[in-house]
Amino acid sequence: MRRETKRKFPPVHPGVVLSHDFLKSKRITQSRLAKRISVPPRRINEIVQGKRGITADTALRLGKFFGMEAQFWMNLQSHYDLEVAKDAIAGKLDREVEVLKAA
After folding, report:
1. What's the whole-model pTM score?
2. CA angle 76-40-56, nearest 5°?
3. Cβ contacts of residue 78 below 8 Å, gap of 6+?
4. Which CATH number does the domain 14-89 belong to among 3.40.710.10, 1.10.443.10, 1.10.1040.10, 1.10.260.40?
């Protein structure tokens, strides 16, 4: 059985990375980003606030704008989603799901 280590900090939402590592460091406003990637400003705001996830569409747009792979944004989102799910069913998973034994 794999031993899970307890995290000391909650998972980091991709919006935090977008806000701190991209918008603030490059001095780009949310509204300017929204306009440049052709999405509603509310979408960027909700991502930055952690109220909305990054979809494949948004990842493609962010990737193109920042000159990087869209997969970077998708990886951030999927990692966040897995960590949140792990927290939500902590303990329950071991009780409810049996490991397949080798024949």
Report:
1. 0.87
2. 30
3. none
4. 1.10.260.40
Neighbours of 5 (CB within 10 A): 5
What six digits make up the tokens of 38? 């052709």
Contacts (Cβ under 8 Å, ≥6 apart) of 36: 65
Spatial CA neighbour of 54 closest among 30, 77, 83, 80: 77
Indicate the SS3 state at residue 51.
coil
> Which residues, in sequence order, are CB contacts of 65 under 8 Å at separation 6+?
33, 36, 37
CA distance 82 to 85: 5
What does the pLDDT look like over 44-54, one tens digit per residue? 999 999 999 99
